C-alpha cells in the first residue's frame, strides 16, 4: 500500500508482518489480558459496528466478533502482510488503510485498538479522522503503553537489540513508536484537539504470561530484536539470539515467562 503519510511506518509494519504472522498465536496468548479489557468494553452496550484500528493479525477483532454475535466487526491496518495473516482466520472483515487519512464510508459505534494507535505521523489528524469514523455518541477505547521505565521487558528488548546493532541510530523518542502516547497529559491534549470529549485515562497493569519455550520465538519474531536479527545473515541469527537471551532471565519463573505490562486504557466519546 502507498500512502503520502506514515510511509516509514507502513514500510516497517509490512516488513514486520511476516514475524507477526509466524508468532500470531504467541501474540494472542501474551497480550490476551489487554484483549480482555477491550472485549469487556465492547460488551458494555449493544453495538452495531465495531472498528479495530491497527488490528495487526486480527486477534482483538476476532475476539470482539466472537463476543458480540451479530455485530459487524472491521479490523483496519496499514500493513498488507499483517492483514494477510488476519484474513487466514476469517470471522471478521479486514480493511487495508491508513487510519490517519482513510475516508470512512460507514460510522462505527465503538472504535477500539490494542497498541495500534501510537504510530501516526500526525496523531491529532489521525484521531480527528477516527472521529469522522465514529457514529454520534460513539465511543473510543484503546490500550497504549505507559513509559519505557514502567515496561522493563520492552526496555530489555530495546537494549538487547542495540547491543546487536550498536551503530543503528536511536529511535526518536518524540516520533511515532510504542511509547508515543505514554504521557497521559499529552494524549489528553491530542484527543481534545481532535474533537473527542469525555476523555478518561486510567492506568491498567497486567502480568502477561507465556511458556518459557515460547520466549525465543517471541523475541525473534517481534519487536526490536527481530528487527536487529533481520540485518544479520540467517545462519548466525540463532547464535545472536542466544547471545541476548540471558537479558530476559529476570522474567523467567520456572517454565513460565511473566511480563509486566504497564498501560493506559484511554476512553473518549464522540459528540452527539
Ligand atoms: C503493535 S501492532 C498491534 C497489532 C494488534 N492491534 C495487536 O494488538 O496484536 C501495531 C499495528 O498498528 C498498525 N499501524 C501502524 N500505523 C498505522 C496506521 N497509520 N493505520 C493503520 N494501522 C497502522 C501496524 O501495521 C500494526 O499492525
Automatic annotation (TrEMBL):
GO terms for molecular function: methyltransferase activity. Pfam families: Methyltransf_25. Its EC number is 2.1.-.-. InterPro entries: Methyltransf_25 (IPR041698), SAM-dependent_MTases_sf (IPR029063). It comes from the Bacteria. The keyword S-adenosyl-L-methionine applies. GO terms for biological process: methylation. Keywords: Methyltransferase, S-adenosyl-L-methionine, Transferase. Transmembrane segments: none annotated. The keyword Ribosomal protein does not apply. Residues 50-138 form the Methyltransferase domain. This is Class I SAM-dependent methyltransferase.
